[in-house]
Amino acid sequence: MKLDLIPKIKHTTSNNFFLLAGPCAIEGEEMAMQIAEKIVKITDKLEIPYIFKGSFKKANRSRIDSFTGIGDEKALKILRKVSETFDVPTVTDIHEVSDAAMAAEYVDVLQIPAFLVRQTDLVVAAAETGKVVNLKKGQFMSPESMKHAVTKVTDCNNQQVVITDRGTMFGYQDMIVDFRGIPTMKQYAPVVLDVTHSLQQPNQSVGVTGGRPEMISTIARAGIATGADGIFIETHFDPANAKSDGANMLNLNLLEKLLTDLVAIRKTINQL
To answer: DAHP synthetase I/KDSA domain: which residues (predicted)?
Structure first.
């Protein structure tokens, strides 16, 4: 993937990692704009290439009464407004073949969720839009196996593909990041480390996923130190009351300090 080919992306010559960040789900226009505005200010200050992230719907839920979205078109229009207002690219995840063409009308990067990354029709549909395709590594997959997911995209004459590691299942209720996977997967495509999802604690008896947000800085620092090309962080100004994944999101007020630290680490790594 060539970062500078993503529409509206900035700071591509800064030699920094790139960032995918935003709320787990689009809950409304005001919250999306508020989060985007703050992240754009931080990333411009630190010269970090930035892509705003927000799910237009949440299809993978533990319970039938869990929040799934505010309406597909309504959420996608909010993503478009974020892009137009702040002049940044956007990314959202898709879950069905029909989602690919629809979402591609509004966003710049299509994300394949980890549980669906082996679904050939879905990956191909995303690739055929010509958009950048972000492949989340399945929690059940080895780093080496992601080569085949990448090939599905490139065989569709789309070279704009990136892999995102979001941890591997460790027992029933925990995730673990194997940092050996970063250099392995970099042989196939640029690699992003999804910091917040890798700290989830799934399969809780109450039907709501838990998390360990106090470890976000630790995992993020290790990701930059081991060569991740990008970092993925879900963030919210009020994680406790977020409608999805609040247990593992980073409080927005903590983002600037974390990114400042990561930029310093990246600068040191670049000098080695």
So the answer is: 9-262
